[in-house]
């Protein structure tokens, strides 16, 4: 089963993502901040990471950079999902190694289609 790590400090957003992902047959892992997200990515090796940007401590840009540049996790696609909707945010996210950048609130179909672009779904 495809495992997706949700990294978001909002319990409401995490619940919504989890609800959508489980409905579409994905297994989910959760981290409430960037630091835990990086640690879980290393230990659990999920198939994809959904990364919020605005979080206390290590923010989503920093966590994305750590995941996409580390030899043991660089193969894992990171999709940033944020309320930050400026062109500079999108550009910065991609420069940190994110494969894609979605803006909250995310449409369910768009989210699933984006995930399927970066993972092998049987």
Oligomer: single chain
Q: How many independent structural domains?
A: 1
Sheet having the most strands: 5 strands, parallel
Could you please say which CATH topology applies here?
Rossmann fold
Any idea what the shape is? globular
- Give the helix proportion (percent range): 40-55%
Give the low-confidence spans.
none
In spatial order, strands of the major sheet run: 2-1-3-4-5
Task: Average the pLDDT over all residues and give the rounded result.
Answer: 96
Query: Count the helices. How many?
Result: 5
- CATH homologous superfamily - what is it? Response regulator
Total number of β-strand segments? Answer: 5
Q: What CATH first level would be assigned?
A: Alpha Beta
SSE order in H/E notation?
EHEHEHEHEH
Assigned CATH architecture: 3-Layer(aba) Sandwich
Percent range for β-strand residues: 15-25%
Gyration radius over CA = 13 Å
Specify the structural class: alpha/beta
Distance between the termini: 9 Å
InterPro entries: Bact_response_regulator, CheY-like_superfamily, Sig_transdc_resp-reg_receiver
Domain Response regulatory: 3-119
Modified residues (4-aspartylphosphate): 52
Protein name: Two-component system response regulator
Question: How would you describe what is shown here?
Answer:
This protein is α/β, with parallel strands linked by helices and 122 residues long. The chain has one domain: Rossmann fold (3-Layer(aba) Sandwich). The chain is 44% helix and 19% strand. The chain has five helices and five strands; from the N terminus they run βαβαβαβαβα. The protein has helices at 11-23, 34-44, 60-69, 87-95, 108-118, and strands at 3-7, 27-31, 48-51, 78-82, 100-103. It has a five-stranded parallel β-sheet, with helices on both faces. Helix 2 (34-44) packs parallel to helix 3. It is globular and about 30 Å long. The termini are close together. Pfam families: Response_reg. One of its GO terms (biological process) is phosphorelay signal transduction system. Residues 3-119 form the Response regulatory domain.
């Amino acid at each position: 089963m495809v495992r997706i790590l949700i990294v978001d400090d909002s319990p409401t957003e995490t619940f919504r993502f989890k609800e959508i992902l489980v409905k579409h047959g994905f297994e989910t892992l959760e981290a409430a901040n960037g630091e835990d997200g990086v640690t879980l990515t290393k230990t659990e090796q999920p198939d994809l990471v959904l990364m919020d940007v605005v979080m206390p401590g290590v923010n989503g840009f920093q966590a994305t950079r750590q995941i996409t540049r580390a030899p043991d996790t660089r193969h894992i696609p990171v999709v940033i999902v944020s309320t930050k909707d400026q062109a500079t945010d999108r550009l910065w996210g991609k420069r940190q190694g994110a494969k894609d950048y979605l803006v909250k609130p995310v449409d369910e179909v768009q989210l699933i289609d984006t995930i399927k672009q970066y993972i092998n779904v049987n």
